[in-house]
Amino acid sequence: MWQSPNDVVLISDARVTSIPVKEVGEPLVDVRGRLRVDTRLADDQGAYAHLRAGVLRRLEHAESLLPAGYHLLVVEGYRPVATQRRIFDGYRATLTGLTPEESYVAASRYVSPVEVAPHTAGAAVDLTLVSPDGTEYDMGTEVNDNPEQSEGACYTAAPGISDDARAHRKLLGVALEAAGLVNYPTEWWHWSYGDRYWAMSTKNDHALYGPVEFTP
Q1: Chain-centre distance of CA 201, in angstroms?
Q2: Residue segments in the chain with a per-residue pLDDT below the cut of 70
């Protein structure tokens, strides 16, 4: 189901960045009250808990496909452009000994460049699986562990994780793929719909969602 890390198309690749956006104009909607939402990355305005309406509908469908005892936990959805730029630039600065071009590509394994970032379009969600009492299942790494911290275990198809973690990643992936979302293979927790990476993965000739401003 998932690609080898050697075969991953990074979000900075021209096959992704060249895809046009034909904005459909769906609103950002609040996930809270409709799915379980974690607060570890909460911002004062609640932007993190918003997604495009079509993305949320698909997540609700994915939730309905999970077996008893499993639920989605949304960690982060929409991300303002300024926040996206700060995270990308901050991570890129830690990647020493590379040329500017190399560091740009390497950083895109973990954080999308602003110009193609699906979080700024409300098209991407970082999420995990929890039990009914809110306990997070073993997924092999924490949400948002970068490739250096996790020694590559953040890659969805990473070989060195436990059988339980692999089974949980597969369970998450089966439900989300059935609902129409696609995974960014360097991050098991990152799924999207309607953005350029989704368009590339599904062979659509355009994306549905571009950057959008959040209004509390």
Answers
A1: 14
A2: 1-6, 110
